[in-house]
Amino acid sequence: MNMQANNQGAKVSIGAKIAKYLKDVRIELKKVVWPSRPQLINYTITVLVFCVILGGLIFVIDLPMSELFLKNLTAPSANSTSIDKNVPSQQTNPNITAVTPGKGTTKPSNVKVTPKPSTSKSGK
Length: 124
Known about the structure:
Number of helices: 4
Low-confidence stretches: 1-6
Largest sheet: 2 strands, antiparallel
Number of strands: 2
Structural class: mainly alpha
Mean pLDDT: 75
Strand order of the largest sheet: 1-2
Order of helices and strands: HHHHEE
Radius of gyration: 39 Å
């Protein structure tokens, strides 16, 4: 007989499981101690005030930081050293000019590099 009881317990339908679950939920919700209306209003006001204070604090911290960040991105000061000035690969040689061919040519091998005439005052 134990074998038959175990087999029947294993074949419980999904609908029966859902019904039992919803019944258990309803029983547990009856055990909950719900706040009174004045308590609920007080808790709601407390949460809203806290959210406004926290939002204001984030705003007060974020606004100057974003202004400082944008200022440094858009207008570097004259006496600050820039990365561009210190990178040799970005410096150009004033004695070399690139001459590109006319329309219709797309091959990079068509680009010719010619040196500029020297205009030094040293007399060499």
